[in-house]
Amino acid sequence: MANVIDITGLPPERVVFTPSPLAELGAALHALSEPGHHPGLHGWVTATNAALKTDLADRLCEADILWRSSRSDILLPARPGATLAEDLDELDKIGDERFVAAAFEITCSPRYTRPTPSPLVDAGERARIREMAAARGPRQAAFTDRMLTDPDGLRVWLRRLFEDCEEAFFGDIWRRVGIQLAADARHKTELLRRKGLAETLSATSRALSLEDAQDGSGGGSSTRIVLDKLAQGRTTAFADPADPGVTFLPTSFGWPHLVFAHAQGWRPVLQYPVASPELPAPAALELVQQRLEALGHPMRMQLCRTLSRGPHSTGELAEAFGITSPEVSRHIATLKKAGLIQTRRRGRYVLHQLDLQVVARLGSDFLEGVLR
């Protein structure tokens, strides 16, 4: 399985490496809400969460549907500014229908590669998003309702939230890591100029490669960037005709995620980590064998990828993967028996989530694979 970006005919200068304050804030917020994804950041997460004022912590909990399970497209700008304010100014220019559709992309979309109507104008899409938000909790459901009923007011609220994050903790972070990320972007840009895209992709992530593919219909060859992920997606560097290209955003908070945003009509964006921490030692051999046997089915591997990003109900998983609820339940039972899945009840929903501490003990390759 892989994600593919067709870059046939794209001039090299349209491949851009640049840091983004907003994207880095999104990565930091994700780490704060899902520390299990980021074993090397536990100290920072604990200290930062402890220092947050109650009001700010509460507001972050309300909005975490935008960054907890997956990263909303609105947090991955294709043309970043030098400051968070500049990134937020560009975000303000997006119309309400497109903004709301992008905000709920990935998080509430069962088929990311399939264009979906804006929930502001489509009743069916609006009902589906509300149902999925309700499974995340009452505060997330209330946030979603506010986004759907008063998008202008919610956008003002969201900008203030990000500005308060900058004042509370992110300003200091960006002054420290922004220099490092800018240096990495300059290095990748120079490598692209001297060595070409294939070598630059290899230096960016071992999950990235450049391929030349022959068109089976006899129409010639195509050039593609391939992302080795437990997911499928396909887009083109010309998805936005007014701004063709691909944007790469370095992050110091992102490992092991390689985040790929390719909403319909938007320029493809990839956020890649610039460092990786050490992971805990693996468990005993017999436990590893038991858990690897549970992962022998390709569908269970895909379920693990989804469940690594946050809790999901059986119904959500069935819809996302196009299988029946009983089939999902059987796979979940196998994973749970191996100790890989945690289950809890939230109201009328039973939610399943991957136990990342157990996964980490299986080894870094598997952890990075499901979280990538």
Description:
With 372 residues, this protein is α/β, with parallel strands linked by helices. Helix content is 50%, strand content 14%. The protein contains 15 helices and 11 strands. The protein has helices spanning 21-33, 42-51, 54-63, 84-92, 96-103, 123-136, 138-149, 151-195, 197-204, 285-294, 298-308, 314-321, 325-337, 356-362, 364-371, and strands at residues 3-6, 15-17, 208-214, 221-227, 233-236, 246-251, 259-261, 269-273, 312-313, 341-346, 349-354. Strands 3-4-1-5 form a 4-stranded mixed beta sheet, covered by helices on one side. A 4-stranded mixed beta sheet has the order 2-6-8-7. A hairpin with a 6-residue loop joins strand 3 (208-214) and strand 4. The longest helix has 45 residues, at 151-195. The two termini are 12 Å apart. 39% of the residues are buried. The model is unreliable at 278-282 (pLDDT under 50).
